[in-house]
Write a structure and sequence with these properties.
Blueprint lengths: L12 E6 L5 E6 L25 H18 L9 E6 L9 H12 L4 E5 L5 H10 L2 E7 L4 H17 L1 E8 L3 H16 L3 E6 L7 H15 L43 E2 L6 E5 L4 E5 L1 E2 L8 E2 L5 E5 L4 E3 L6 E2 L3 E2 L3 E2 L3 H13 L3 E2 L1 E2 L13 E2 L2 H8 L8 E2 L3
Parallel strand pairs: 2-3, 2-13, 3-4, 4-5, 5-6, 6-7, 18-21
Antiparallel strand pairs: 1-9, 1-20, 8-11, 9-10, 12-19, 12-20, 13-14, 14-17, 15-16
């Protein structure tokens, strides 16, 4: 019996795993300061006035990351595979950015550190990226000015010659920008530049725009995807009837009758995932999950992610879900008292059983690719591929 896509995926999918164990990812917002003001970016995470963190402060955070990862890697099966991604704000606006990249290279080696940037930086930052970092991800934002976008495109082309670059193509919901993104997919393919079309979470798309994403990923993964190209998951669990099928989005403020939100999500790195199908009692391979409601599932996000907000002094397991112990959300500690985070982690892994996080939100975003299950027993089975010598327990 095939999957009925009129129902949500999680009616049928009871566990999610990675085909190959993913790396540990540390995302580090080194400051709020940004020279862009994108309409879909939270004002709480960026501005053009916040002070830059000093080099001493950034170096202390680097030392904390090193100590934290040393503990994690005693148990990770792929303990040589990790990445530290500098983000913001716009990280290259900090005048200490070049020196920070040198210190990170000294501590972790060039092959483990990268940066996510809007791509508008000058020569000093460009040289630091090429000399000290493994790669760069450029997030292309359509609502920047024409001259800035020209500079970003040129930087992308130059980086593609000098180092490894990937573009996150942020598909703006406004029609003219959406069409600009589609044109850029052809440009990047012609210039052999790696890119990923990115959905702007919780923003309205037309049915045609939503289908573009579906068709794109179906074409990439062919029949392996757990996706039905002929149906669109819309807001909520019930389909929204669209009376005017040919109505297109003309402005950034669509009417209620043709708002669509792309409910599913692919792995940010487009890595293959495995889904346990309850109906067929089999595991199926795909890169796109059509529904990411994993509320109350047991999740291993803390074994694959660490997120640091330099500007708020806070440390999280993950940037968006902010999963914490005892079925709560929020920071796991502060940078100013990072020794308490280290002490708790040491205590957790030294016991007979280790606590496991449970999801508390309705929609999983970045981080949806981490191994997870509705069942603690299945969780313990699949986590063995990724974490060794530990047994996990339900602490809720």
């Amino acid at each position: 019996m095939g999957i009925d896509y009129n129902k949500t995926m999680n009616t049928f999918i009871t566990s999610l795993d990675q085909e190959v164990s993913n790396q540990m990812v540390v995302t580090w917002d080194i400051g709020k300061r940004c020279n862009f003001d994108c309409v879909y970016c939270d004002p709480l995470t960026h501005d053009n006035t916040s002070p830059h963190a000093s080099l001493e402060t950034l170096s202390n955070t680097t030392d904390f990351i090193k100590e934290y990862l040393d503990i994690i890697f005693k148990y990770k099966t792929n303990n040589e595979d990790f990445s530290i991604s500098l983000t913001g704000g716009e990280p290259t606006t900090n005048p200490n950015f070049p020196e920070l990249t040198k210190y990170l290279k000294e501590k972790f080696g060039k092959r483990h550190v990268s940066v996510t940037s809007n791509g508008s930086f000058g020569k000093n930052a460009f040289d630091a990226i090429v000399d000290n970092l493994k790669n760069i991800t450029v997030s292309y934002h359509c609502d920047a000015g024409p001259k800035i976008k020209e500079k970003v495109i040129q930087n992308i082309l130059d980086l593609n010659e000098a180092t490894k670059v990937r573009v996150n193509l942020m598909f703006h919901f406004k029609d003219e920008y959406f069409r600009e993104c589609i044109r850029l997919t052809k440009f990047f393919e012609d210039n052999k530049i790696r890119y990923t079309p990115r959905v702007v979470n919780h923003k309205p798309y037309t049915k045609q725009q939503t289908n573009w994403f579906k068709d794109y990923w179906a074409e990439k993964a062919k029949a392996k995807l757990l996706i039905d190209k002929t149906k669109v998951h819309q807001i909520g669990r019930e389909s929204i009837k669209v009376n005017k099928e040919k109505e297109r989005l003309k402005t950034g403020n669509p009417t209620e009758e043709h708002k669509h939100i792309v409910k599913g999500r692919h792995c940010c790195a487009s890595l293959p995932l495995l889904f346990e199908n309850k109906e067929t009692d089999t595991w199926e391979k795909g890169t796109y999950c059509t529904d990411t409601n994993f509320k109350n599932w047991f999740c291993s996000v803390n074994w694959f992610f660490l997120h640091i907000e330099q500007q708020t002094n806070k440390v999280f397991h993950h940037q968006t879900c902010q999963a914490n112990w005892n079925n709560t959300r929020g920071p796991i500690g502060t940078l100013s008292e990072s020794h308490l985070i280290i002490d708790r982690l040491k205590k957790q892994v030294s016991g007979d059983t280790v606590p496991v996080l449970q999801c508390t939100i309705d929609t999983c975003k970045c981080g949806m690719c981490t191994p997870k299950s509705q069942s603690i027993d299945t969780f313990n089975t699949i986590i063995k591929k990724h974490v060794k010598d530990l047994k996990f327990k339900n602490v809720s």
